[in-house]
Automatic annotation (TrEMBL):
Membrane-spanning residues: none
Annotated Aminoacyl-transfer RNA synthetases class-II family profile domain residues: 1-353
PANTHER family: HISTIDINE--TRNA LIGASE, MITOCHONDRIAL-RELATED, HISTIDYL-TRNA SYNTHETASE
GO MF annotations in UniProt: histidine-tRNA ligase activity
UniProt organism field: Rhodoferax mekongensis
InterPro entries linked: aa-tRNA-synth_II (IPR006195), aa-tRNA-synth_II/BPL/LPL (IPR045864), Anticodon-bd (IPR004154), Anticodon-bd_dom_sf (IPR036621), His-tRNA-ligase (IPR015807), HisRS-like_core (IPR041715), HisRS/HisZ (IPR004516)
Family under the similarity heading: Belongs to the class-II aminoacyl-tRNA synthetase family.
Highest rank taxon of the organism: Bacteria
CDD domains: HisRS-like_core
Main location class: cytoplasm
Protein name in UniProt: Histidine--tRNA ligase
Length: 437
């Protein structure tokens, strides 16, 4: 066949920019973190909930607020070609969890503690710790109004950092008060910034009368002085809001959890009131917030449910894993237990039931498969066994199989002598290796 008539090589298709594949061995670290979180949630009596990644666009417009960066700039929204419905890939999941709780009447029999894990989507410029598809783990306590639950969800996140061995995380807290207090503060903010219009950038001027609270987290260096001199919301709080914050602080103090009250701390969604908080680190540059949340007592009603209080947080999985890497913390799933070395392709089918016995006993086992040329050499198989990270090599040679035995060789501890097991003893041996299996 001439080169002219030969089939043209297809262009390679790659992932969308900012939406990343998570491949082994990196995926094992993700699984290890998720396993830690699931165990933590169990101890705090939180139950798993799974919601769709596509929701009605109106859910986020109503719940997050029209004048937010997420709704204005970052959502992946589209029209359903079948029915014209406006849909959006979820940019966060608190609104989705609340929608599900309302739709399924979950609070009919009392409050609920729920958690979720999954991908979120925001159309923004990808950078370290900030991606177009990113993953969050979140906890939502629905139907609880007391400040002690605010403290409990904060303590839960703090316990996770402690158990992961992450020490470089600072807790910042604040109170956004109640709507009437925020309205008074809003009026004062507008008056303050109007008297300094010449110092505001165009984005700040646009937002001034729509959502002046968002001006406080502007990163524009030229606005920092006027932001610093702006009225502080904490000065507008009534007695009940102050007491709520003081109760949270007292509980944190009793648990010896250090924190900073940051009067400039605001959140990017409109649904927050009273307690807000962030866990931040200096190790990740500008993307230093690893977990954030607060109380949102009016969101359930906004989405169509009966009025009920709520509080929760969301954690950025990529950022936490990046921090784990920066901190040198080892976070791994249990490794491979056994690599089966099989010398003759004719023995594969005879060996497979024995490997199944080990797996049923709770061990992870990798079998050396055959190739078009038969089985690799014994030397090659031992190299693969060592590279696999397995703790033991099980050698099924002709002499072993003839006598119903297997040779067990430790690959990680030279002090463990080589041994021979009867094949019918393997389950007992596995139980002694992991007594809790």
């Amino acid at each position: 066949m001439s080169e002219k008539n030969s089939p043209r090589k297809a262009d390679k298709i790659v992932a969308v920019k900012g939406m990343n594949d998570i491949m082994p061995p990196e995926s094992a670290v993700w699984e290890a973190l998720e396993a830690r979180v699931r165990e933590l949630m169990r101890r705090f009596s939180f139950e798993n909930v799974r919601t769709p990644i596509v929701e009605p666009t109106s859910l986020f417009v109503r719940g997050l607020g029209e004048v937010t960066d997420i709704v204005e700039k970052e959502m992946y929204s589209f029209e359903d070609r079948l029915n014209g419905e406006a849909l959006t890939l979820r940019p966060e999941n608190t609104a989705g969890v609340v929608r599900a709780a309302v739709e399924h009447s979950m609070l009919y029999n009392g409050p609920k503690r729920l958690y979720y894990m999954g991908p979120m989507f925001r159309h923004e410029r990808p950078q370290r710790g900030r991606y177009r598809q990113f993953h969050q783990i979140g906890a939502e306590a629905l139907g609880f109004g007391g400040a002690e639950i605010d403290a409990e969800v904060i303590l839960m996140a703090h316990m996770l950092w402690k158990e992961l061995g992450l020490a470089d995380i600072e807790l910042q807290i604040n109170s956004l008060g109640q709507p009437n207090e925020r309205n008074s503060h809003r009026a004062a903010l507008i008056q303050h910034f109007e008297s300094h219009l010449d110092l505001l950038d165009e984005e700040a001027k646009r937002r001034l009368h729509l959502n002046p609270l968002r001006l406080l987290d502007s990163k524009n260096p030229g606005m920092q002085a006027v932001i610093e001199s702006a009225p502080k919301l904490i000065d507008f709080l009534g007695d009940a809001s102050r007491e709520h914050l003081e109760t949270v602080k007292k509980i944190l103090d009793a648990h010896r959890v250090s924190y900073t009250v940051n009067p400039r701390l605001v959140r990017g969604m409109d649904y927050y009131n009273l307690t807000v908080f962030e866990f931040v680190t200096t190790k990740l540059g500008s993307q230093g917030t690893v977990c954030a949340g607060g109380r949102y007592d009016y969101l359930i009603e906004q989405i169509g449910g009966k009025p009920a209080p709520a509080v929760g947080w969301a954690m950025g999985v990529e950022r936490v894993l990046e921090l784990i890497k920066e901190s040198g913390v080892a976070l791994r799933q249990p490794g491979l237990d056994v690599f089966a070395v099989i010398t003759d392709v004719a023995n594969l089918q005879a060996v497979m039931p024995s490997l199944h016995v080990l797996r049923e006993a709770g061990l992870s086992v990798q079998m050396q498969a055959s190739t078009s040329e038969g089985m690799p050499s014994m030397k090659s198989q031992f190299k693969r066994a060592d590279a696999s990270g397995a703790r033991f090599a099980f050698v099924f040679g002709p002499d072993e199989l003839a006598s119903g035995q297997v040779t067990v060789k430790s690959l990680r501890d030279s002090n463990v002598p080589q041994a021979t097991l009867r094949i019918d003893e393997m389950a007992t041996w596995a139980a002694s290796l992991y007594p809790t299996v």
